User: What shape does this take?
Amino acid sequence: MVDGMDAAALLDGLNDAQRQAVTSDAAPLVILAGAGSGKTRVLTRRIAYRCATETADPRHVVALTFTRKAAGELGNRLRSRTPSCDVRGPTDTSHRRPCWSARPPSSPGCSGVARA
Assistant: This one.
């Protein structure tokens, strides 16, 4: 557990497909799901879960979304779930998609597909 983040608590309220996506060892991971299915929930919990279990270096985490609204929501949820990480964004990628990055405060600066 990192800085008070409880990995098991991050799985509360997820269905089986969401839980599988959050705990998957695949990296990078693509989440394909329809509107209202919990994609943002899965992305934020996956990032927080991997930080909590120390299976990902927060300096190397990037989450991509297709709209600024989704990026804003993703950023807000990441900040509330990962207080020990410096969440930065949005920034535009070369494809003009908003991108969020979670990094440790001291920092200078997804292989598989899951259906949720």
Q: What stands out?
A: The chain is about 30% helix and 20% strand. Residues 91-98, 107-116 have pLDDT under 50 and may be disordered. Strands lie at 30-32, 61-64, 86-92, 98-103, 113-115.
